Amino acid sequence: MNFDGMTRGIGILILLGAGCAGPAPTRSEERARVERQLNELYRPLRALIQESHLSVQDFMKSKLGRDWIFPLEKEEEVKLWLVKAETDLMPRNERMCALIRSKADLVDGPELPPTWKALLEHQDEWRAVHEKWKKDHVPYPWLTPAEMMILIASSTEMGRGMRSSRGV
After folding, report:
1. Of 22, 34, 94, 157, which residue is 20 to 30 A from 87 by alpha carbon distance?
2. pLDDT tens-digit series, residues 17-31
3. 3-state SS record for 41-65
4. In the chain, pLDDT over 70 holds for what percent of residues?
5. Does the structure show a pLDDT above 90 at 100?
6. HSE of 110 in the Cβ direction (CA atoms, 13 Å)?
7. Is 6 helix (H, G, I), strand (E, B) or coil?
8. 73-76: which pairs have CB atoms within 8 A and are 24 or more residues apart?
């Protein structure tokens, strides 16, 4: 096969593939989608993550006087943490989850990134455990430092996933 024949063959394959997927978006449409992704999903989610991080850092410094949370060492620390979780962290996590669920159509690909799925599952489980603790006084399952490091690593991956999507 000569060069012209190969070029025609590649062109036919491209046309067939494009026909299956529908018309390609124009540059303007693609740019508008990226702007929607940034304005409606990625930037608000990043702001919530940063707000949460700063809030936890402030809690550790001002309330616990150290740079870690778990294990909680005194009953007063448990009370402080539960108030923090209920009035600050859980509501913010709920806003993150609501944002992800309501803007899932802005995610590239057929599925949410694994770290986002993990956040949704984590918040659903945390809400259920917290409600059981409040209602039935079931002991709260505190994380060990090793488990907390896994959670922190997951949240770092979530941030990395946001930055790598579309070069954001």
Report:
1. 157
2. 444 556 888 999 999
3. HHHHHHHHHHHHHHHHHHHHHHHHC
4. 71
5. yes
6. 0
7. helix
8. none
CA distance 123 to 163: 22
Measured between alpha carbons, how far is residue 92 from residues 16, 35, 59 in Å?
A: 47, 24, 15
At residue 157, what is the residue type? E
Residues 108 and 166: beta-carbon distance below 8 Å: yes
Residue count (the chain): 168
Which pair of tokens denotes residue 15? Answer: 């046309």
The candidate with the shortest Cα–Cα distance to 71, out of 147, 159, 161, is 147
- Domain locations along the chain: 34-167
**C-beta atoms surrounding 106 within 10 Å:** 17
Give the number of other Cβ atoms within 10 Å of residue 100's Cβ.
20
Out of 11-15, 28-32, 42-46, pick the least confident: 11-15
* Nearest alpha carbon to residue 103 among 152, 168, 21, 33: 33
pLDDT at 152: 61
Does the CA dihedral 116-118-122-125 come out positive or negative?
Answer: positive
More confident: 7 or 37: 37
pLDDT computed for residue 164 by the predictor: 45
> Token pair for residue 30?
């693609």
